[in-house]
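Now for one record:
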Amino acid sequence: MVDSGYATHILRSSHSGRYFYTIGRDGRVGLIDLWFEKPKLVAKVRTCWDARSVDSSKAPGYEDKYAIIGCYTPNQYWILDGQTLEPLSVRSVADSPDWATGNKLPEVRVASIVASEDEPFWVINLKESGWVYLIDYRDPKNPKETRLKADNFLHDGGWVKIPGKKEKRYFLVAANAKNKVCVVDTKEHKVINCLETGKIPHPGRGANIVDPKYGSVYVTGHIGDDKIVFIGVDPEKHPQYAWKVVREIKTKSPGNLFVKSHPKSNHIWFDMPLSSKQENGNFVNGQVGVIDIKTGKIIKYIQVSPKRVVHFEYDKDGNEVWISGWLENKIYIYDDKTLKLKKVIEGDWLKTPTGKFNVYNTSKDIY
């Protein structure tokens, strides 16, 4: 147990895997050193009143050197020393106008943040104004901003990973209240497309798989729609499918928050924690679904718990899937091949579990 602050939202691994950066809804940032015999909180600082996003520097020569915090309140981001959390600079985003109208907005929050492993910048997404900023941190006290127009209500997203390619060039982010997913080309510094996928897409980090027909695709679910959507993402091998919805899989209910897969798995797992439906006396929000990548069909629904379950994380080798029993204060571990329950983790120390983050998968952006 490590005290990380109120309502910790996410943990992000440093490039080396030595550190976990935590961010809570109280704006408190924690630095956990995993190389101690028992993981230890070695630094903490408060940068905001409310926050949800953090990441570290990952470009060659800058590994673990800096960290960035995105704030909801105040509307700003901080750059910190990556190994001490000493604040280096703070920048307001409150002046970011609506991307389409140019009008001033009453609030502009920093939503998701991801780090490029190829160049020294972070990708940050401004929720209300619909801008994507590339934050060059080579001079962390005077960071350079490259501003790209996307669409309003940017939220979560993830990198495209194509087998055999080390480069992470394309980043997909949901403009969720616009029912779109936007494609950012971080190499060319431009937004390629914002495509409609369904009502309130919520990919989390999304899932990268290889579809037998459409090649490399990125997968997202939806809060407001009963479908899982595949987006073509390989403009070199499959240009006819790139940046288009190529497959839709109907689910039994809206209310999805997370999808997850692994390069060694034949499955995509999806949850439905915001579903209000009931089935045979059980709430659907206690179920998860499993999609066979080879057929593009749902092969099983699993009643994990009688109450709400959420989020998935694979182990490093892609053999196990960990699911959070949010209301039962349990973590359920399933065998990815047999889809059978292997183990349940519980205890007084486990309260409303949500996100779980494998160090290797998180540091390598495997999802």
Summary: Residues 359-363 form the longest helix (5 residues). The CA atoms of residues 126 and 138 lie 22 Å apart. The chain has two domains: 8-271, 272-367.
